[in-house]
Amino acid sequence: MRIIPAIDIIEGQCVRLSKGDYDTKKIYNENPLEVAKQFEAHGITHLHLVDLDGAKSKHIVNHKVLEQIAKKTSLKIDFGGGLKTDDDLRIAFESGANQITGGSIAVKDKETFTNWLAKFGADKIILGADAKDEKVAVSGWLEESKEELIPFIQTYQKEGVSYVICTDISKDGMLEGPSFNLYKKILSETASGLKLIASGGISTFDELPKLAELGCEGTIIGKAIYENRISLKQLEDFILNS
């Protein structure tokens, strides 16, 4: 299972929110590159980079941060937040993103998202299926859609999606543990071959082997790292022993 630390960006700074609420913003580091280099120094190879300004303004904003991390580390970066147009994707990929994550766009403009899958390939496009009470949320989680989570994933699997990041918003940033039951349900009710990336609520190291056992392809870890609940040394050992 891939370990994927998260860096969330507001105004160029590394922050974390609770349950996606911008009013809960906590700045952890003014230099995201410094944070990314620490991850890389501990054997981490992947990074989840979220442009929270972009999610709010509905277009890419913090691409300079992406470019800096991509140029100065060898991390494989998946980048998301406010990507709505082909031009946004062009900027993201030119700035060094290895993959992009589309969430709101997949709900609100299925044609564009499906075109991206065809144009860039399923290995480059991750479906962001973030949910509250199994309903997909959009616009930086500021709105709830009428889309049911599992049928939403199933529909896009038919379009070729293989990578899905699923965050249970009620768990995100709360350090109360991830939604094991939800991930189990998704993996049992979707077509085989789904590369499910768990996100939200990771609070202790012991949860990682459980997610791996469920069949999650990756897990995104944010606040647990920044609040020193899980050490980078623990993650390094997990990667070496996997």
Q: Can you walk through the features of this model?
A:
- With 242 residues, the chain is α/β, with parallel strands linked by helices.
- Helix content is 38%, strand content 29%.
- It contains eleven helices and 13 strands.
- The protein has helices at 32-41, 52-57, 63-72, 86-94, 104-108, 110-120, 149-158, 180-189, 207-214, 223-226, 232-241; strands at 2-10, 13-18, 21-29, 46-51, 76-80, 99-102, 125-128, 131-132, 135-138, 143-148, 163-167, 195-199, 218-221.
- The protein has an eight-stranded parallel barrel with strand order 1-4-5-6-7-11-12-13, surrounded by five helices. A three-stranded antiparallel beta sheet has the order 8-9-10.
- A hairpin with a 4-residue loop joins strand 9 (135-138) and strand 10.
- Helix 1 runs parallel beside helix 3 (63-72).
- The longest helix is centred in the middle third of the chain and has 11 residues, at 110-120.
- It is globular.
- The termini are close together.
- 45% of the residues are buried.
- The mean pLDDT is 94.
